[in-house]
Amino acid sequence: MITETARVVAVEGDLVTVEAAIKSTCSSCQAQSDCGTGAISRALAPKTQQLTLRSPMPVVIGQDVTVGVPEEGVLSASAWLYLLPLMVFIAVFALANATLSSIGLSHELWGLLPGAAFTFVAYKAIAFKLKRLDKGKFQPVLLNTI
């Protein structure tokens, strides 16, 4: 279980809205004072994120809680959303290059068009499928109060 500390900002029945600070790896990097990416990350990135989830225990506004997300949900969603579209792009790009070169369009840029289109469709289909799957696998849960 991946855990994070959050603060309760709203309570409505058994629904609890928690707010957690977004942590960046830039804050622990040794080159953060000389790095342009770190400066942009600190300036533009949202500082907090809010989640609404069901609470199995009574909580009050302002209370710190521990929120957890199952690792298998994060890993499987990452594989679906990153690896599969990448494999679709590579396969469609290779097939398009082979097919289009036979009709005289031999430049690699011609393969990007169908590759990008099929990758976009695959990504949307996967996102739609993940929304319809068992939400308990991907839902954060309130583990305990601090």
Task: Count the E strands.
Answer: 5
Q: Which range does the strand content fall in?
A: 15-25%
Tally of helical segments: 3
Give the fraction of residues assigned to helices. 40-55%
Largest sheet: 5 strands, antiparallel
Alpha carbon gap, first and last residue: 17 Å
Mean pLDDT: 84
Spans of at least 5 consecutive residues whose pLDDT stays below 50 are none
Q: H/E element string? A: EEHEEHHE
Order the strands across the largest sheet as they lie in space. 3-2-1-4-5
In terms of structural class, how would the helical and strand content be classed? alpha+beta
What sort of overall outline do the alpha carbons produce when their principal axes are compared? elongated
Brief characterization of the structure:
This protein is 44% helix and 25% strand. The chain is an alpha+beta fold and 146 residues long.
Explain the overall architecture.
The protein has 146 residues and is α+β, with helices and mostly antiparallel strands. Helix content is 44%, strand content 25%. It contains 3 helices and 5 strands. The protein has helices spanning 36-44, 71-101, 109-132; strands at 2-12, 15-21, 48-54, 64-69, 141-145. Strands 3-2-1-4-5 form a 5-stranded antiparallel beta sheet. The chain is elongated, with a radius of gyration of 22 Å. The model has no long low-confidence stretch (mean pLDDT 84).
Task: Furnish the topology, listing elements before pairings.
Elements: E1 2-12, E2 15-21, H1 36-44, E3 48-54, E4 64-69, H2 71-101, H3 109-132, E5 141-145
Antiparallel strand pairs: 1-2, 1-4, 2-3, 4-5
Helix pairs in contact: 2-3
